[in-house]
Amino acid sequence: MQQPKRFQAPTMAEAYDQVRRELGDQAVILSTRKAFAPGLFGQPGRQFVEVVARVPNESATTRAERPTLEQDEAAHDLVRAIAEASAAAPLAAHEGPFAGFQAVASPADLPAPARATRKRTTKTAAPTGAPTGAPASVRPAADIREDATPLPMPSTAAASGPVALPVPSSEEPWSRQLDQMRSMLETLVSDRLDQRIDGGPAVLREMKERLVRYGMTPALAASVVSDVDGSAARDEQSLAANVERRLAAKLPPTVAMNPRRQRAVFLVGPGGAGKTTMAIRMALDFQQQGLNVVVAGTDVNRAGAPQQLTAFGAVTGLDTRLCYAPGELEEILAEPGVDMVIIDTPGHNGLRRDRMAELSSFLQAARQRMVLLTVPATMKGADLAEVVSAYSAVGLDGMVVTRCDETSHFGHLAPVLVEAALGMAFTTRSDQVSDAPSAADNLVLAESIVRAQWSQSAPAAAGARRAPAGRTLAKVG
Q1: C-beta neighbour count of 112 within 10 angstroms
Q2: I want to staple 305 with a disulfide (CB 3.0 to 4.6 A). Which of 31, 299, 331, 339 is the partner?
Q3: 429: alpha, beta or left, given left = phi > 0 and alpha = psi -120 to 50?
Q4: Would the pTM of this model clear 0.85, i.e. be above it?
Q5: In a domain, 166, yes or no
Q6: Which residue has the higher pLDDT, 198 or 417?
Q7: Exposed/middle/buried for 374, CB within 10 Å: 0-12, 13-18, 19+?
Q8: Which residues of 270-303 are buried (b: 16+ CB within 10 A; e: fewer)?
């Protein structure tokens, strides 16, 4: 492993430039700090930024090999069997069509008895019309499927163990094959559920098409609508109420905050999502509950970001500070009388290595923490899925959805939350700092998806404030 190197520069940006020039874009930032060097012989001292970085070890890569015919056929049988079993019974709450799959760190984590059984079966069972002793690799695919021993199937109520899948010889092809299997499975499950919906009242088909039009994936829309009893689809209003309740039951549980256990709250997410405004709203709300709250900003390099946070502090009277290094955040958390610190982080999509390394260093400075991904409701579903996947590397505890009043399509939120098993914590539907954030409610989100407008019945957060008459605090530009 390469020894870490230290870089000193007047600003953080110049220090990062030195790291990139000498170590390249693959460099990992280990630590950053702001220091002061005293002057010699009466000369004035100087402030500088010190960055410690190194180049990570290069991992050995293995040659990709194409899966064999037996592995492809076993995967095909498995996908079809899971799809038929999933469509035969309603899906359980908080489970998607891939509930039978377990997280796989590497192919070595999977058992191989099914693959061995499959191999023995194809050798002993002779297909009709094929000469005895013919090699299995040259037999028709249909014959291989007919004489194959069924693979173990996960129960829809509770999986009995890991599913034995065909294991390619390298991790990269395995990842691609698993993605293809998931896509095939989603298509097959959607087809089976569509057949069930087509056999019911016409209002079921209309409701499914409506959910897809509002941004929901066809698979999730079909699973929600197919769970509705045909007798409950007498009219559009009763059907909508049933769909809202069933969709809310499929969403992960909402996230509640405990200020006594989670003293540091990190707001992370893409730029322009409203993290700074959300930090001020949360701070004002918890201050109303009697807590001493500090808003710390780590976005110190973006033009205007420090000035914006300082202006918020001057208008609201909150204690706002800038943190250039993790050590400064540790000092704030160690101060007596500070009950909570809300950290406003730089905005990016989670794909920048330097920003993610910097975020990780700040996270390590706070042990009792909560990480909330802050995203706007206007964000496209594909972009939202990529952001959630990128930030999952640091460990997300919940999601904050802002700007709920700026769109009428919320269907893209549901599949992302279900797939990532990520619950919502807060929502906002105005840009007024004096408005407290609303505690998340799955039924409110489900109603907003079905009705194509944000529900006005969103409950206010605990201890919500009301601005004094004749005074509102607008968002600082």
Answers
A1: 13
A2: 299
A3: alpha
A4: no
A5: no
A6: 417
A7: buried
A8: beebbbbbbbbbbbbbbbbeebebbbbbbbbeee
Number of H helices, E strands in the chain: 15, 11
Residue 422: closest CA among 401, 407, 403, 436 = 401
Which residue is associated with the tokens 């000092």?
331
For the CA atoms of the chain, what is the radius of gyration?
27
Tokens coding 420: 């990532």
Q: Which domain holds residue 32?
A: 5-54
Mean pLDDT of 363-390: 92
274: tokens are 């409203």
User: Whose structure tokens read 């008895």?
Assistant: 113
Would you say residue 352 lies in a domain? Answer: yes
**Beta pairing class for 438-439 and 424-427:** antiparallel
For residues 259 and 271, the answer to whether their CB atoms sit within 8 Å is no
The 3-state DSSP class for residue 149 equals coil
Q: Which amino acid is at 146?
A: E
119 is a domain residue: no
CATH number for the domain including 392? Answer: 3.40.50.300
**Is 85 a domain residue?**
no
How many domains does the chain contain in total?
2
What whole-number distance in Å separates Cα of residue 365 and Cα of residue 385? 28
